[in-house]
């Protein structure tokens, strides 16, 4: 086969390949143009003004002020430049200058729509300047006032629109400059490249500022969510700890029931056989209940208690152990005065434990946040003998002292509320006028909490736990007006 015949066979193949490449390029160009049109015609936001969500009122009005200043200053400057420097008709110059500057006010809320108006006015101005006498030796197609207004618009646009929209605007600006090159008047200074570069820089700066703001806002949202989750976790941990402590109280009652049911046939003579069987069933049920409670305690027991043995098997404390607790606090450098009832008070185990824990948490907060402050602890019954009043009041810490902790996990106040809610009592906390703090709890001596009290207390706990998650900020809660005067609460030195 000759070389000529081989060349003839290859020519259709090459032409087909060129046509295929050309068709692929055309499809890609149409797709890019379609994407460009979609991006330029789809605003990102619903029309919310720039800085519209800022709390500060002056910052919300700042974009309007900046847009107004540029619009007012650029409008007469543009008319003067177009009419006097370029020799454009005064009416046409005024109309084009208004179309180029007035939409800057619209750019505060709808920058993409403002860009369409200003860009069309800029292109129309460039075409109108071709036939003027003063264009020679001057900037074209974008006069200086056009460049300034366009850059301000780019900043507003970059603070609102998506990245693809900004790229589409930038490419459209460059394409307009390229298409204007063949129409450039003689002896005029081209500004197409200048506007293309400056607008790109302005879009880049604005986009970086917007993304930085978005990142900070997301971090703040995550911190808020983390704080709420931490407060909820603290509440659940405190409830779990209280449930573990109450296990011993309930187990004691169940053990008493078991012993009484088992020993009833031996202590009481003449019990019918049916009654003996009934007592045996009661004892068996009580043992099963104790076994189930031990399983429940195993679920509630924390990893730390399992790792360090089982300290929960120690007897639960009560107000009888308060002198020992106060003695340890005094050794820690906090002067404490303790007042207890003169006569022994018969308390339910849950009330006794709750009173002790409230005092313990209050003294711990004094040690952590007001070291060295004079503190008074008072536990007494009300006049009618129906409630137990627990009062812990501390003065302001000495001036040279600094808090050992400025933040906390919030277990203190949350634990107090949960213990008070458990026994259907009440709790009042608040700052004193002299800088101290007051914790006052009222606990019923007898009676179990009703379901309504428990539910209302639960709702109060859920509502307030997020505000008092840190003991260091506990002074923000409560009413200062209800706090007692410091002169009444503390004896003279």
UniProtKB/TrEMBL annotation:
Catalytic activity: ATP + protein L-histidine = ADP + protein N-phospho-L-histidine
Membrane-spanning parts: 61-79, 91-109, 116-136, 142-159, 166-184, 190-209
Residue ranges, compositional bias (Basic and acidic residues): 1-22, 301-313, 459-470
Molecular function GO labels: kinase activity
Keyword Iron-sulfur attached: no
Pfam families in UniProt: HATPase_c, HisKA_3
Annotated EC: 2.7.13.3
Domain Signal transduction histidine kinase subgroup 3 dimerisation and phosphoacceptor: 238-303
Superkingdom of the organism of origin: Bacteria
Domain (Histidine kinase/HSP90-like ATPase): residue spans on this chain: 354-446
UniProt name for this protein: histidine kinase
Taxonomic source organism: Streptomyces halobius
């Amino acid at each position: 086969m000759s070389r000529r015949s081989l060349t003839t066979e290859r020519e259709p193949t090459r032409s087909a390949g060129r046509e295929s490449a050309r068709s692929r390029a055309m499809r890609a160009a149409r797709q890019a143009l379609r994407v460009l049109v979609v991006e330029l015609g789809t605003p990102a936001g619903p029309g919310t003004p720039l800085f519209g969500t800022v709390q500060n009122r002056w910052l919300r009005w700042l974009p309007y002020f900046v847009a107004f200043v540029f619009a007012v200053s650029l409008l007469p400057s543009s008319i003067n430049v177009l009419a006097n420097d370029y020799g454009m008709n005064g009416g046409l110059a005024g109309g084009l200058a208004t179309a180029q500057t007035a939409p800057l006010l619209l750019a505060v809320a709808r920058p993409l729509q403002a860009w369409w108006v200003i860009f069309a006015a800029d292109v129309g101005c460039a075409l109108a300047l071709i036939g003027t006498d003063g264009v020679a030796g001057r900037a074209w197609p974008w006069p200086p006032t056009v460049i300034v207004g366009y850059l301000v618009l780019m900043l507003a646009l970059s603070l609102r629109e998506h990245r693809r929209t900004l790229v589409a605007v930038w490419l459209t600006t460059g394409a307009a400059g390229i298409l204007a090159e063949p129409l450039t008047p003689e002896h005029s200074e081209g500004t197409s490249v200048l506007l293309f570069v400056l607008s790109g820089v302005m879009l880049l700066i604005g986009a970086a500022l917007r993304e930085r703001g978005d990142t900070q806002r997301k971090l703040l949202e995550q911190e808020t969510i983390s704080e709420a989750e931490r407060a909820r976790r603290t509440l659940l941990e405190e409830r779990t700890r209280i449930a573990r402590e109450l296990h011993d109280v309930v187990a004691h009652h169940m053990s008493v029931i078991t012993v009484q049911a088992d020993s009833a046939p031996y202590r009481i003579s003449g019990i019918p056989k049916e009654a003996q069987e009934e007592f045996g069933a009661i004892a068996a049920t009580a043992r099963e209940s104790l076994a189930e409670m031990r399983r429940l305690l195993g679920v509630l027991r924390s990893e730390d208690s399992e790792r360090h043995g089982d300290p929960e098997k120690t007897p639960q404390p009560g107000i009888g152990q308060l002198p020992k607790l106060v003695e340890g606090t005094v050794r820690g450098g906090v002067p404490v005065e303790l007042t207890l009832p003169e006569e022994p008070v018969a308390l339910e185990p849950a009330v006794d434990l709750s009173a002790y824990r409230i005092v313990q948490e209050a003294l711990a907060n004094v040690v952590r946040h007001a070291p060295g402050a004079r503190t008074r602890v008072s536990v007494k019954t009300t006049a009618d003998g129906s409630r137990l009043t627990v009062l812990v009041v501390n003065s302001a810490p000495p001036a040279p002292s600094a808090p050992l902790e400025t933040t906390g996990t919030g277990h203190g106040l949350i634990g107090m509320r949960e213990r008070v809610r458990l026994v259907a009592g009440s709790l009042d906390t608040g700052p004193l006028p002299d800088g101290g703090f007051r914790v006052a709890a009222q606990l019923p001596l007898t009676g179990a909490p009703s379901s309504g009290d428990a539910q209302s207390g639960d709702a109060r706990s859920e509502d307030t736990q997020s505000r008092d998650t840190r003991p260091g900020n506990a002074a923000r809660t409560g009413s200062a007006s209800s706090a007692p005067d410091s002169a009444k609460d503390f004896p003279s030195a």
